[in-house]
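About this split. The held-out portion is used to measure sequence recovery: a designer receives only the structure tokens and must propose an amino acid at every position. Recovery is the fraction of positions where the proposal matches the reference. Here is one held-out target exactly as it appears in the evaluation file.
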């Protein structure tokens, strides 16, 4: 329990908030990446459910049966999880990962936005685009704010400590 108390009361609240947010983001990518590879029908049915909830037309493309795109998507999403984890592990050392992380997710959001413009009968594309833009913003906001806040702090003051100091 003392670790949690030290974590919660550490001198850098932005670093604490970054760690919390990036734990959620890492899991947000890690778990779906596994399901994309092993259980694509779950993802396809969830997309269909979101689309129909938003009043969209039946989305009957056989996405789950495409191994090429499914594996590529799973690898990309697992890479997002890895990049989030690296930044959590040592924000000072791996802050440079923010740029490809932000680019990959923002580019994905833009593709979904264009997908919606091309096929507005599928509002789930717009929902995914907006969620991905919000995720990209969270990458930038939480990591940049935390990185700035820890510049004058010793690694021993941070919970968890950056990997390079352990």
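Reference sequence for scoring:
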């Amino acid at each position: 329990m003392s670790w949690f108390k030290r974590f919660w009361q550490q001198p850098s609240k932005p670093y604490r908030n970054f760690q919390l947010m990036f734990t959620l983001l890492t899991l947000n990518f890690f778990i779906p990446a596994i399901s994309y590879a092993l259980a694509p029908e779950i993802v396809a049915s969830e997309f269909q459910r979101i689309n129909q909830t938003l009043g969209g037309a039946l989305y009957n493309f056989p996405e789950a049966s495409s191994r090429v795109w499914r594996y590529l998507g799973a690898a990309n999403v697992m890479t997002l999880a890895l990049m989030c984890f690296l930044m959590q592990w040592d924000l000072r050392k791996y802050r440079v990962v923010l740029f490809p992380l932000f680019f990959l997710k923002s580019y994905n959001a833009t593709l979904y936005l264009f997908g919606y413009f091309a096929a507005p009968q599928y509002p789930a594309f717009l929902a995914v685009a907006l969620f991905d833009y919000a995720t990209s913003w969270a990458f930038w906001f939480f990591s940049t704010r935390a990185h700035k806040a820890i510049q004058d702090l010793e690694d021993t003051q941070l919970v968890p400590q950056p990997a390079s100091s352990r």
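Annotator remark: The chain has a mean pLDDT of 95.
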